[in-house]
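Data deposition worksheet. Section B asks for the primary sequence of the deposited chain exactly as it was used as input, without tags or linkers unless they were present during the calculation. Section C holds the resulting structure in token form. Section D is free text for depositor observations; keep each observation to a single sentence. Incomplete worksheets are returned to the depositor.
Section A, Depositor: J.P.
Section B:
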Amino acid sequence: MTSSYKELLSNTLPQVYDRIGEAISASGRESDSVRLVAVTKGHSLDAVSAALDLGLTDLGENRVEELEKKVDEFGRDLPTWHMIGHLQSRKVRRASEVAHLIQSVDSMKLGTRISRFAQESGFVVRTLAQVNASGESSKSGFNPASAVDDILCLSELSGIRVDGLMTMASFGANDKNLTSTFRFLRAIHRQLQDQGDMVGPELSMGMTNDFEIAIREGSTMVRVGTALFGART
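Section C:
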């Protein structure tokens, strides 16, 4: 099956790189300013193997159990593992031990739990603060109205490093609404950076259907699954 994923990726990966490159060029940004996170969630170990063979080393997973299984198989030396799905407080220890970056820190409660684990373990957990920039009730994330103050508080917790922000746009939204969502996250990020260096430069926004718009609005990290690996079974 690895060969099947490798054959698929040999076609889809150049297309995704072309889309990213065109969006970067149209935005007047540097060619290396956007990182591709290949979302392997819901795909087999063969998909991860094929991705690594073709040079995709930033890999995203939604579920802690699936992340652990893949880390057990491929280790943490070559892949950089991103936890991109909602993280339950009771799974903080497990996620922090295997993920290089937890992109989905969506509340002070979760941040406090991560901080407690980090202090007990004696190391720093790298995170992104997830903001509900679209304002949808179904989405997790810091409330946009208080996000600046809340994320500054998050960044002050011991054992946590906030590398930047993450958001998810509304599925099926039109270009105008997508632009508004991504632009709003960038504005929050700018306000945070105006406060000093407590929050890093990353803006993780944009997925298969909208990452060109996200890049135009300043994304530094796009999370792409379907366009690379096809629909999940």
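Section D:
The first strand starts at residue 35 and ends at 39.
DSSP finds nine helices and eight strands in the chain.
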